[in-house]
Design goal:
Largest sheet: 9 strands, mixed
Shape: globular
Strand content: 15-25%
Distance between the termini: 40 Å
Order of helices and strands: EEHEHEHEHEEEHHEHEHHEHHEEEHHEE
Number of helices: 13
């Protein structure tokens, strides 16, 4: 039997350097931000980044939602499993991103913009909430010709699963659609993430263009509610919204669409196209004292879930993998993961059980 192809998972979105600092209500009000939200920066927000670095005990962390997801998936999968694509500037911040990804075993193939700086995301932490304000900069300069280049397109053809963060719908829809069409034509898997409420609110046309190609659509309850409002739905029932998204017209009718909606500590909702009822997967509880940082928890869930899809796990197992990685993430600064004996020989043992004779891993207690 031949070896499996390298880099079966390809992720596309906006690489960013997170500038994560401690905040308060006064800082949020100064920049007209909400405690738990994600927006694109305007001119009035540009002072936030220096404020965080100078006065708010800021930490620099490799970020960008899909890049976080890619690192999370690579944490679980065998070496040389995940490839990430986006655009950065020609500067020291881009080098920091490369070093962080290299340390995570993640292969990156960045387009380098010669004029714009690497994108950055100001993250204001207030308690267990995080407000993210993103200045895309170079990340906004991704081009289809990079994806279609002789160096990159063979990697696209080699991959069997594509994961795209919704944030990229503000950047380069043609690149997203190129992956969507490749997936449908070749019977590959196309996974989309809603990413933030403003995507369905203000980029609904672009989102709708991708929807026939979704094999999996992932989001959280706030994003699902924003999607429902943009779609003209009157219901606020998360299960019904998930069923609606799962039931949209699909280009590849050989595979049922699956909608996955996380709800923080409430059960994860899963709807499968054509099935009348939705499934609920309870989330393991964790004490507030052990929650260090919720920034990137959704990205971590997506990383674990997508890793399960790549490995051919069941839907239930994939959700469990997502919840496991998200739980591990919120006990660290940003979306990071420490070594754990459940990660053995590049495979995760069933997360709901302990290893015989060893007791429970710290992240399961």
């Amino acid at each position: 039997m031949g070896s499996k192809p390298e880099y079966p998972l390809l992720c596309l979105e906006n690489p960013l350097l997170d500038i994560q600092g401690e905040g308060d209500e006064a800082l949020l009000q100064e920049y007209n931000l909400k405690a738990n939200d994600a927006i694109l920066a305007e001119e009035k927000h540009m002072g936030l980044y220096s404020e965080l670095l100078t006065n708010r005990n800021a930490k620099l962390i490799a970020g960008g939602a899909a890049q976080n997801t890619a690192r999370g998936a690579q944490y679980i999968l065998p070496p040389k499993s995940v490839l990430y694509i986006g655009c950065v500037g020609k500067d020291e911040y881009a080098q920091k991103l490369r070093e962080a990804c290299d340390a995570a075993g993640l292969r990156v193939e960045y387009r380098v913009d010669e004029t714009a700086p690497t994108g950055r995301c100001g993250v204001i932490i207030t308690g267990h909430n995080r407000s993210m304000c993103t200045h895309l900069a170079a990340a906004n300069e991704y081009k289809l010709d990079h994806l279609k280049s002789p160096e990159i397109w063979p990697l696209v053809e080699q991959a069997s699963v594509y994961y795209v963060g919704g944030f990229h719908l503000t950047v380069c829809v043609p690149a997203v659609m190129a992956l969507a069409h490749e997936a449908t034509e070749k019977g590959k898997t196309f996974i989309m993430n809603l990413s933030a409420p403003f995507i369905p609110q203000f980029f609904k046309q672009q989102l709708d263009e991708t929807s026939p190609y979704w094999d999996y659509i992932i989001g959280n309850e706030t994003e699902a509610l924003a999607y429902a409002e943009a779609a003209g739905l009157t219901t606020k029932d998360i299960g019904e919204i998930a069923k609606y998204m799962a039931g949209l017209k699909k280009a590849n009718e050989q595979r049922k669409r699956v909608a996955v909606i996380t709800q923080g500590t409430d059960p994860t909702i899963v709807a499968v196209q054509g099935e009348g009822s939705v499934k609920q997967y309870p989330v393991r509880t964790i004490s507030k004292e052990r929650i260090y940082d919720t920034n990137g928890a959704g990205d971590a869930f997506a990383g674990g879930f997508v890793a399960g899809i790549v490995e051919g796990k069941t839907l239930e197992e994939s959700v469990d993998m997502g919840q496991w990685l998200a739980r591990l993430s919120i006990m660290e600064l940003g979306p990071q993961w420490v070594s754990c004996f459940f990660y053995t020989m590049h495979q995760l043992l069933p997360f709901s059980k302990t290893v015989p004779g060893t007791g429970s891993c710290f992240c399961h207690t």
